[in-house]
Write a structure and sequence with these properties.
Blueprint: H1 31-45, H2 57-62, H3 65-79, E1 82-92, E2 95-102, E3 105-113, E4 121-124, E5 128-131, H4 136-144, E6 149-156, E7 165-167, E8 173-174, H5 180-192, E9 201-203, E10 222-224, H6 225-234, H7 238-248, H8 250-259, H9 265-268, H10 274-281, H11 284-292, H12 295-309, E11 333-334, H13 336-348, H14 353-358, H15 366-369, E12 374-382, E13 385-393, E14 399-407, H16 415-425
Antiparallel strand pairs: 1-2, 2-3, 3-4, 3-5, 6-7, 6-14, 8-11, 9-10, 12-13, 13-14
Helix pairs in contact: 3-16, 5-7, 5-8, 6-7
Length: 430
């Protein structure tokens, strides 16, 4: 349930640091300076120059030199050795596009220099990855080499079509906050039936723990269902999620899960709120009781939890989340095929509101987004759990899904590695 974005990966496989002073009035810098700084970036990534000689202090405060080294290790693991600077194309006095050539990919993105005389790097975004001579077989081998369990499905949304890439698509996986798509789908179904309106106003009467922002909003704030749904999907707001689950009804969300064709509802039910999950994972005693109970017993435990906690995070002991915790028992579960079926139902909705909400945070570089007519996204993560799921529509109006899940109960999983794989997978449709 942690926000997927990190300092090194604000979108798929991206480095983004743009301090406020990056927006100052630009000063014309000789092209040779931009070229030289581009070469210097390569030297830092290769360990041939100290990062402090090239990157501004503000940049390194957010992305220390050790993280640059770690990123380089991850990129070379995905794309082979760094051959050098492919291109340094200046666009204005202090900014331009650089391209790094690896054995298996070109990695491009904007580079921004400080306008002071030392012209140090204050912004770097490497998010445009162009695979070179990549293949389904090579990517599949890299997926299967990841520690733990991995499931990937890249396929037309329509059932029965041959997938573009498929690795264990029927395996039940912990999907983290991607479960929130089931709540969105259930809400959209109620709106379509005339039971609710996106403009309906409810009261902020319960809260959860982050990710999100609404846990900091005043209690009793009026908020529309549309706002709650947008916060739930776009920034994975847990408070918005729990209010919607309570408003729509656990029974309605569970019915949506079953009706969507989920292949193992017994594994996924009861459908937990985020605060319930935090409460269970933060209490070894309650966790053991819950895991050992049958479905009826679990529902009684959740009813008691609601009576005791009533949406008050201060009444639970939050988990430390320093390592994977009960990710194979207390989580939200779905296979890649289950997510395909759910996305098919969302794509088929006559009202486009749910699809527009999913499209607020597309988690995809601009150059990749331009290859699609529509991009929608929801992901989820906690220690040992990572899911990336895209709903995509091409210019011929054909729908696709890319659903990627990685679970490891023994260790943390690395978001950047998985996101780089996604950037290699997406071009395979061509």
């Amino acid at each position: 349930m942690r926000t997927l974005m990190t300092a090194l990966a604000l979108s798929a496989a991206a480095i983004t640091i743009q301090p406020a002073f990056a927006q100052e009035t630009e000063v014309q810098v000789p092209e040779t300076v931009f070229q030289q700084r581009s070469e210097d970036v390569i030297s830092v990534l290769r360990g041939e120059m100290p990062a402090a000689d090239v990157f501004a202090a503000g940049f390194l405060a957010a992305v220390p030199a050790e993280q640059l080294t770690a990123l380089m290790t991850q990129m070379e693991a995905q794309f082979g050795p760094l051959a050098g600077l492919e291109e340094a194309k200046e666009q204005s006095g202090t900014s331009g596009i650089i391209a790094l050539r690896f054995e298996k990919a070109l990695v491009r993105g904007p580079l921004t220099l400080d306008s002071t005389p030392d012209n140090k790097v204050i912004g770097l975004l490497l998010n445009d990855i162009q695979p070179l001579n990549d293949s389904v077989a090579a990517i599949t081998a890299d997926i299967e080499a990841l520690p733990g369990d991995v499931s990937v499905l890249y396929a037309p949304l329509e059932g029965g079509s041959n997938p573009i890439l498929s690795v264990d698509p029927d395996r039940q996986m912990a999907i983290g906050s991607t479960f929130k798509l089931y709540i969105l789908a259930a809400l959209a179904r109620q709106v379509a039936a005339g039971e609710r309106s996106w403009a309906d106003v409810v009261t902020l009467d319960r809260k959860s723990l982050p990710s999100g922002q609404m846990q900091n909003w005043p209690e009793g704030s009026p908020v529309t269902l549309h706002t709650l749904a947008t916060m739930m999907i776009s920034i994975s707001d847990n408070t918005a999620t729990d209010i919607l689950l309570h408003t729509v009804g656990r029974d309605a969300v569970e019915a949506e899960l079953v009706q969507s064709g989920h292949s193992d509802p017994a594994r996924a039910l009861p459908f937990l709120s985020t605060l319930e999950t935090f409460g269970l994972k933060g209490s070894p005693e309650n966790l053991a009781k819950y895991v050992g109970a049958g479905e009826d017993g679990k529902r009684r435990i959740l009813a008691d939890f609601e009576d005791d906690v009533v949406g008050r995070p201060d009444r639970i002991s939050p988990p430390r989340f320093t390592e994977p915790t009960a990710i194979d028992t207390v989580e939200w579960f779905a296979s890649g095929e289950d997510l395909r079926k759910l996305m098919q139902r969302i794509a088929d909705l006559p009202d486009p509101t749910a699809r527009k909400i999913i499209s607020v945070n597309q988690a995809m570089p601009k150059t990749r987004r331009e290859e699609w007519q529509y991009v929608g996204y929801k992901g989820g993560s906690e220690p040992g759990v990572l899911n990336l799921t895209w709903l995509l529509q091409d210019d011929a109006d054909k729908w696709y899904i890319l659903a990627m899940s990685w679970n490891n109960p023994a260790a943390e999983v690395t978001a950047t590695d998985f996101e780089m794989l996604a950037q290699r997978i997406l071009p395979l449709r061509r």
